């Protein structure tokens, strides 16, 4: 009989990932996940309160309560909430309950920048608690009441979190990454809450099959509907004309515009082209230096147009923003990505509306599905 080898760290059984070093087997799948981990400790029960600056909407309150009920019954929850719904605050009630019982909370997000952005918000909401952020090189202090971390750091917390929350469960690099999924499962002692505006079919299927709870919130916190993208169907070459026309129109009204391009090359090429017509313009992509500074320039209105790849498809919140997606038929634009990109618009209560344009040579199934889903959310607010 063939002997099955299992990596004790990541559960890998695929022989092609095992190497041999001086007669000892090692696993290539999880070799990059190295560093200290910590062990579970029971804590003293104490009353924990939290504070939010605004009042939750009725619907938010309802879901907040249902999430807590699920946790007390030992049921996992998926919070399926549209972009700009205010889903972070919905889990505060459950977090406070878990902490009050001397249990531990992990709040994981695939991307580091979101961890950094969320840290001051969680600290402010839970002033009585020690909130630590753990990511990349930032991992000297692993202990806290609330641990905010990237999904890449979950391997340090084996059987540790009574409650693990994973926000943006469908985001890169977590989605479809078996190792990260394995480490996240291993870190949970009791239950988990997943949150997403665009959960994958796979996740929805698992929740249905296992009888877990799916709570939907299809209205934004300010109760305005989501902007429906407008499609301009045109051959690629004419898009160079339409982009100028749209940008001029928006700039006349003093609106800032985020222009999405499918590739790094195109982001640079379109920047060079648009620079001939517009002044306060710049571009970012994953290879661009000082991209945080450039995004800040845009945020603080020193730029009126920012060209970007899908690195800014999530997380960014800018007031009074308009969005244009060029070459929207490109394969990088899944319906999930298009929904996230469209969700950048109208997030602020001061400007809850705005425009989203898809310039495309072909109306793909992904474009159709994205628009269909957004309409569905609006009809079921
Ligand atoms: Zn392994």
Task: Summarize the structure in words.
With 381 residues, this protein is α/β, with parallel strands linked by helices. It has 3 domains: 31 residues, no CATH class; 160 residues, P-loop containing nucleotide triphosphate hydrolases (Rossmann fold); 150 residues, P-loop containing nucleotide triphosphate hydrolases (Rossmann fold), CATH 3.40.50.300. 31% of the residues lie in helices and 20% in strands. Strands 5-6-4-7-8-3-9 form a 7-stranded parallel beta sheet, sandwiched between helices. Strand 12, helix 8 and strand 13 form a beta-alpha-beta unit. It is globular, with a radius of gyration of 22 Å. Zinc ion binds next to loops. The site of zinc ion (ZN) has 7 residues, from loops.
Features:
alpha/beta; Rossmann fold; 20% strand; 10 helices; single chain; 7-stranded parallel beta sheet; 3 domains; binds zinc ion; 6-stranded parallel beta sheet; globular; 381 residues
